[in-house]
Write a structure and sequence with these properties.
147 residues; mainly beta; five-stranded antiparallel beta sheet; 2 helices; 10 strands; globular
Length: 147
């Protein structure tokens, strides 16, 4: 298995952060991704986060990896999202949905109208697909011929 330092990093042409500074990570999570809370394992000497993000109108695609245990919270959003696990284990909770994110799996589509919490274990890597609800409604309406 290749180490994180030598493997190709998805979306590397769209960097947001690659940092071991918790305050910088917190700032980027809040300002770029809209997080409302962030906690990490302060006993870990391996803290670092890498995040890349590509935004195309109503569609966003992000890559994130975490070298230590982290917990991230979000409030209501204008978009739905789905998480695609690349490696490691995580957990999500939103509204009535709670579940594990096992290696190689994905979450169901996570609703926009409810607060959301993610808990990731050290070594977790993921892709996140975000679709604005307005764009989703517009495109689905065009496909089925209704607003």
């Amino acid at each position: 298995m290749r180490s994180m330092a030598t493997r190709s990093i998805p979306l590397s042409n769209y960097p947001v952060m690659r940092s071991s500074d918790p305050e910088l990570v917190r700032d980027r999570l809040f300002t770029v991704f809209g997080a409302s809370g962030f906690d990490f394992d302060r006993s870990s000497n391996a803290f670092s986060v890498t995040a890349n993000h590509l935004q195309m109108r109503g569609l966003g695609l992000s890559y994130c990896d975490y070298a230590s245990d982290v917990s991230i919270r979000f409030g209501e959003a204008s978009f739905v999202r789905q998480i695609f696990n690349i490696e490691g284990i995580g957990r999500y909770a939103t509204g009535s949905q709670v579940g594990d994110i096992a290696p190689g799996s994905c979450t169901p589509i996570l609703e926009a109208e409810a607060p959301l919490r993610f808990d990731y274990k050290a070594g977790y890597r993921q892709l996140v697909l975000r679709i604005e609800v307005a764009a989703l409604r517009r495109n689905l309406g065009a496909l089925i011929g209704q607003e």
